């Protein structure tokens, strides 16, 4: 409430808001000239994967891969190791992707009033002919996302409360991820114009107790929160496989983790160097020749602090090129 905000922020709120406005222009864009163009033909899907750090790729636990599908995508598609924004919470990463700017390190960026979104990704996609959709299983008040998503340029917004008239699977936190994937897939399959879908997953959130017992495949029947992290990550991995394989040919899919899970289990530990945390960002094109895996020379030329902005801004360039705003067209509508 207003009293709480005044208590915590006091007279510094105006300065914090000003700082965030300045951070709106801090958006790394360093792949042009290094990265080969990706084929972008119709739809774009971006998925923020809850608690999926770089350490998940190729991890073996209890004699099996934690994320076999993500492993296969990382090998066959374009996979970047990016430094996460995670000063305050998961919302730092979706704020960065959607606002186009850098999140505050002192206050939840979505909670700062009076910030205009002049570089918002949904608005950009709208202006380039995409129908824009956001889906998250938690309620829209969590991190004040709904209020901000409304101002960013989404045509459709789906939070927990928007599913109230539908018979969907739910956990104690909200609508299950499989329901988000199902709705997104259905909309994309019947679409008659380009679509941009942004999905934030939830089921693999700490303390990793949001999935059903029969869904636990790595450690069946486990009550250990560490072991249930691997159960949750494996479930998400399988649901991502089913979702991505259901999408129309040519759909560009970008999957990235919001932060490592913080789980230490034997040789498995968070991908961290000091305060820096690292997550995967995978670029995949459905049913087409995928972006090639990086060769050694390209990997060596990428910044060590590569950010999710670098990947999203490169995608923006490809879409702008296709609309005639830039040269070397890579975008074509199939509709």
Structural overview:
The protein contains 10 helices and 10 strands. With 335 residues, the chain is of the alpha/beta class. The strands form 2 sheets. Strands 1, 4, 5, 6, 7, 8, 9 and 10 form an 8-stranded mixed beta sheet that branches. Helix 6 links the parallel strand 5 and strand 6. Helix 7 runs parallel beside helix 8.
Layout of SSEs?
Blueprint: H1 2-9, H2 13-23, E1 44-49, E2 60-61, E3 64-65, H3 68-76, E4 78-83, H4 91-99, H5 121-127, E5 131-136, H6 145-152, E6 156-158, H7 177-190, E7 195-200, H8 225-246, E8 252-257, E9 272-273, E10 276-285, H9 296-301, H10 308-322
Parallel strand pairs: 1-7, 1-8, 5-6, 5-7
Antiparallel strand pairs: 2-3, 4-10, 8-10, 9-10
Give me a quick take on this structure.
The protein has ten helices and ten strands. By secondary structure, the chain is α/β, with parallel strands linked by helices. The strands form two sheets. Strands 1, 4, 5, 6, 7, 8, 9 and 10 form an eight-stranded mixed sheet that branches. Strands 2-3 form a two-stranded antiparallel ribbon.
């Amino acid at each position: 409430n207003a009293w709480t905000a005044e208590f915590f922020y006091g007279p510094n709120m105006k300065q914090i808001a000003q700082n965030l406005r300045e951070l709106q222009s801090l958006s790394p864009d360093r792949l042009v000239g290094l990265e080969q163009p990706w084929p972008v033909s119709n739809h774009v899907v971006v998925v923020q994967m809850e608690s999926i750090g770089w350490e998940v790729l190729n991890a073996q636990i209890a004699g099996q891969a934690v994320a076999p599908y993500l492993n296969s995508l990382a090998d066959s598609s374009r996979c970047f190791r990016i430094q996460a924004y995670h000063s305050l919470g998961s919302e730092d990463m979706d704020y960065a992707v959607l606002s186009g700017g850098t999140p505050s390190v002192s206050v939840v960026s979505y909670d700062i009033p009076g910030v205009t979104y002049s570089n918002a990704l949904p608005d950009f996609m709208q202006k380039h002919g995409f129908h824009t959709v956001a889906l998250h299983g938690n309620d829209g008040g969590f991190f004040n996302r709904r209020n901000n998503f409304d101002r960013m340029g989404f045509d459709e917004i789906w939070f927990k409360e928007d599913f109230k008239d539908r018979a969907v699977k739910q956990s104690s936190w909200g609508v299950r991820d499989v329901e988000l994937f199902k709705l997104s897939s259905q909309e994309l399959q019947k679409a008659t114009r380009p679509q941009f879908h942004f999905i934030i997953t939830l089921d693999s959130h700490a303390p990793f107790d949001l999935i059903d017992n029969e869904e636990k495949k790595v450690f069946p029947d486990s009550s250990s929160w560490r072991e249930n992290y691997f159960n949750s990550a494996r479930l998400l991995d399988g649901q991502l496989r089913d979702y991505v394989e259901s999408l129309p040919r040519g759909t560009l899919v970008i999957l990235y983790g919001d932060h490592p899970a913080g789980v230490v289990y034997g040789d498995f530990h968070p991908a961290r160097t000091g305060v820096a945390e690292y997550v995967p960002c995978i670029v995949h094109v459905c049913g087409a020749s995928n972006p090639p895996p990086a060769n050694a020379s390209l990997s060596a030329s990428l910044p060590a602090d590569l950010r999710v902005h670098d990947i999203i801004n490169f995608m923006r360039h490809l879409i702008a090129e296709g609309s005639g705003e830039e040269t070397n067209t890579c975008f074509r509508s199939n509709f």
